[in-house]
Specification:
The protein is about 40% helix and about 15% strand. The protein is an alpha/beta fold.
Length: about 600
Amino acid sequence: MEAEGQRRLRAMRMEAAEYYRGHGVPQRMEDALNTLFRQCPADLYGELANYLSKFSKAPIISKLVGRKVLDGVGQPTLEVETHCTVKNCERRICSVVMSSHFQTLVNALPETIEADEKERNNSVNTAVEWVNESLSTMLRDVKPTDQCEVDKMLGEYFTKKVEEKEEIRKREEKEKEESPSCIPPATTQPGGKKAAKQGKKVSVPDKMIPPAESVESVLCGSLAIAGTSLAVAKAGATINRVPLYLHISLLKHNQDSPKEMTLPLPMVTVLNCEKTAKLKLVKEVMLIPPVHLSFKQGLERALDIQKEFMRLLDPPSKEPSPQAADSKKGKAQNTGKKSAQQASKRISHLGCPITGCDNLEQLLLLMQTVCDNISLELGKDMYLAINCAAHELMDYSKGKYEILTGTFNSPDEMVNMYVELTDKFPFIIALIDPLRKEDRQQWSNICRALGSKCFLIAEDAATYISKLKIDQNLNVPTCSGVVLKYINQTKVSDLIELTGLLDDQRQITILGSPDGESSDDSLVDLVKQLLNLLLFLMNHSQKNLLMNLLPPQLSQTAPQVHSLSAQLPVSSTLTDPGCQHSLLHKFLRKPCSNAVLKMPKQKD
């Protein structure tokens, strides 16, 4: 018995020695002990653990956790949390909060708001279900640093879901056709309007305009794809112990570290214009600081202008006398709610002040007055960008844009108006959505007329990144830049691939997010390395937080360059490979918030 025990013990020793020898443990332990003996670290075991950790297996995804949270405007959205197995232990690595593609409805009917909330909640709930069940199982044991493999699997999963939805739609249509219908359908005209009664005149536009294109459909739950892709990218950066922007840069440049970094400058929305005001043309006015200011300096200057603007909007009222105060005391309960409502109407849902003007010149002169009051000159110390949102102004019965209450312009007249506007106010260097995307001929005309001195940005004309990848020759209007949005089924690899294609074609690239901004800062990392030069928009309510979070390098003064006007493109045609506007790439989170413009360095 004793001999048998000794024999087993020797066999186990030999097996153990072979096991450790096969993994190189004796040699590595000898190297570690020899190295640490020379260093004599204060924490010997800690340094020994660090030394041996270099030989541990790469972390793998253990599970994904999806949950329903609130975005920056209090609406439900998706959060994706990544858990990985690291050194045989499961750890929570990171999480991301996505922005939903749904817009924030203002002054909408109660039934419209209710339907929108129902659709939004259904979309988020479906996305949470996808993450917690299918995607978590599918990506288990995959390395979070293998972004290409993860995005490939996500793309295949989404394609399968689209095919399932298409099969359900065809089956429902077939069942509907087979079922007899007793009630004949009502005769309708295009657009859902009922046929006009006999003898009643129908208004016809003076000149036919292209009809509005159909809105791109969004698969319910597709937000899970973008959220999971970004969460895995963030986990990969955390595991590699590098910032997310550097991790993405390495993915884009095939693991080659960037040689230099450029600093962004802030661009801030100073006001939103009321839809009920006489002036319809302007939706938002934004400030662009000159390029020689650092990020922090530009943000502080924009805040000074906004404070002065608020002071002019709300002049201090005289305090009532004691007698007047007593006489009004009984009305305090009734007037309190009214005052609160009036105050709330002056601030948008993203924190921007709201005002109304009778005409555009009045609004721009007000901006000049604000800058003059604090000793700043528009066109030198600050520039303006205007979000026109022209697609919201079209009266299809007349075939014209309603730029003022009761005043209508044809698409050709809009082009002439913008030319006169920029000639009279040269400090306007960017127009966002000056026309509908369907008015492509007018887009070409305005680019030829203003492309050398003003950036013409088509946000509403942009399409989803996944669609641009499939059809790179997609018919979009000629413009200075097209907004790409990281939402729904978009993946990090899609952004990397498409921005690379746009760079090769010398086109301006714009990365944006929808209305419901989240508190997550991952989008900033995306733009920092995907776009060489950028325009970065942030939520108005995040400005003070951002000021406190600025890293030291963003507080430094950027290299001295010429005025912004000298940096404007010679041509603004996306299809022209020889144009110079590719020197200015822009990142738009949303033209209803704040932004950052990153300019090129000057050549010696």
